[in-house]
Amino acid sequence: MSDDIFITEERIEGAEDGPLAGKTVAVKDNISTDGVRTTCGSRMLEDYVPPYDATVVSRLKAAGATIVGKANMDEFGMGTTTETSYFGETDNPAAPGHVPGGSSGGSAAAVAAGEADLALGSDTGGSVRCPAAFCGVVGIKPTYGLVSRYGLIAYGNSLEQIGPFGETVEDAAQLLDVIAGSDDRDATTRSEGDDSSYADAATGDVDGLSIGVPTELLEGADEGVVETFWEALGELEDRGAEYHEVSLPSVEHAVEAYYVIAMSEASSNLARFDGVRYGHSGGYDGNWNETFARAREEGFGDEVKRRILLGTYALSAGYHDKYYKKAQDARAWVKQDFDEALSEADVLASPTMPVPPFELGESLNDPLQLYLADANTVPVNLADLPAISVPAGETDGLPVGLQLVGPAFGEERLIRAASALA
Amino acid sequence: MSDDAVSPEEVRHVADLARVDLDDDEVDRFTEQFADILEYFETLDEVPEVDRETDLTNVMRPDEERPSLESEAALGNAPETEDGYFKGPNVS
């Protein structure tokens, strides 16, 4: 069961005492572990063994956690199903025969299957929240800057955060307490999480909570998903929350803005993989441009090549203003929309994913259709905001997630609200 | 498909800039997919110009010596090394 969840199964023992003593944690395979292979789900890094720990891994060890393995993922985090991994697909423990979501599919599956108590993933455009929703577990995408990215192998560095998975909101919050906080090795971290007590906020108290429901994030969603979403919202209402509809007109352009920015950043971040200092070698025949191009042809899969090429295109002379600059405008617009909506609501709620989990192998051939499935998650990364996905119920036996979005560094509020459901 | 859909030559040119070799099948497949994806990206034209707030501040730290990786560890993942250096392909 566990062999398709982990790329590398290896125990890393933490300190004897600490808040996570006795807890097992799965770590996504793009987070560096000293002496333990870290592949990013790619042939390029099939044999790469980091010589240092990511900050979040040092913090896990110091907190007494036991790491049980490096979890499967879409190659370099690029995907929504974990099927782009060079090491093969991962089945969904909550819905066998279906994808676990992505890109942190192995992490979510590890928690859903009971292979680990907790897990770490990374979320560039939904890569924690999507698999949490598809596997029926809880996943948190922290505010940009709450958690150190030191040792996280970069894909879209202005968008991504490492985030926790747990079976309950309180479990995930406890892991967030351990990893949050400033780090002098990541200059984009902030001090808001330094003395956090997120787990204590998991009281389930939603009395008087004001919930905004962005109508744009329900349009076009699967009927069964929408029905399950409203049932969960009804539960929150029964406990004293109230909701009203809000509008986020900018999110209509969020998916294209997200992909232009993420691909542009990917084309730059992945330029380091030349097969000389680490990674798959292109050999020594011919000049360096030829051998680099050969290393990258052999080491990268289709989706990674697609994004590097499209990002290179979007940044190339003559197209920069048309794509990248407009995408940055859209990003600023999305931020303004969220600020406005959150000035009249405590949190915003939507289905995490507009669709239930795909069947394995169903979706790989049409990249654009797959990008559109990220419609509800990517706006949050563009706006640098925190969000949580919590199980809302099932449609036809398939898990559905409810996403709550809060103001910057409003993790406590999200945890309090979401803990009413799980 | 929009007027300026990408051609196979453009896909090859971009792949060359990005230093990624492609075989003919990949060029054909990407040409078709990029047309769809770029047509979708065109809708960014409808985005208004937005005042971008820049509330970013520089983060500085004292310029102090601290330990870094030993060269053996830094070279540990290199496919080839020579005399404590990375070994790369010919430059010209």
From TrEMBL, chain A:
Active site: residue positions: 28, 103, 127
Catalysed reactions, semicolon-separated: L-glutamyl-tRNA(Gln) + L-glutamine + ATP + H2O = L-glutaminyl-tRNA(Gln) + L-glutamate + ADP + phosphate + H(+)
EC number, as in UniProt: 6.3.5.7
GO MF, one example: ATP binding
GO cellular component assignments: glutamyl-tRNA(Gln) amidotransferase complex
Ranges of residues in domain Amidase: 10-414
Annotated TM spans: none
Keywords, sorted A to Z: ATP-binding, Ligase, Nucleotide-binding, Protein biosynthesis, Transferase
PROSITE patterns associated with the record: AMIDASES
Function of the protein: Allows the formation of correctly charged Gln-tRNA(Gln) through the transamidation of misacylated Glu-tRNA(Gln) in organisms which lack glutaminyl-tRNA synthetase. The reaction takes place in the presence of glutamine and ATP through an activated gamma-phospho-Glu-tRNA(Gln).
Self-association and partners: Heterotrimer of A, B and C subunits.
Protein name per the record: Glutamyl-tRNA(Gln) amidotransferase subunit A
Organism lineage string: Archaea, Methanobacteriati, Methanobacteriota, Stenosarchaea group, Halobacteria
Gene coding for it: gatA
UniProtKB/TrEMBL annotation, chain B:
Pfam family, one: GatC
Top-level taxonomic group: Archaea
Reaction equation(s) it catalyzes: L-glutamyl-tRNA(Gln) + L-glutamine + ATP + H2O = L-glutaminyl-tRNA(Gln) + L-glutamate + ADP + phosphate + H(+); L-aspartyl-tRNA(Asn) + L-glutamine + ATP + H2O = L-asparaginyl-tRNA(Asn) + L-glutamate + ADP + phosphate + 2 H(+)
Gene Ontology MF terms in the entry: asparaginyl-tRNA synthase (glutamine-hydrolyzing) activity; ATP binding; glutaminyl-tRNA synthase (glutamine-hydrolyzing) activity; transferase activity
Compositional bias segments (type: Basic and acidic residues): 59-69
Transmembrane segments: none
UniProt enzyme class: ligase
Binding partners and assembly: Heterotrimer of A, B and C subunits.
Biological role stated in the UniProt entry: Allows the formation of correctly charged Asn-tRNA(Asn) or Gln-tRNA(Gln) through the transamidation of misacylated Asp-tRNA(Asn) or Glu-tRNA(Gln) in organisms which lack either or both of asparaginyl-tRNA or glutaminyl-tRNA synthetases. The reaction takes place in the presence of glutamine and ATP through an activated phospho-Asp-tRNA(Asn) or phospho-Glu-tRNA(Gln).
Family per similarity comment: Belongs to the GatC family.
Protein's recorded name: Aspartyl/glutamyl-tRNA(Asn/Gln) amidotransferase subunit C
Gene (name only): gatC
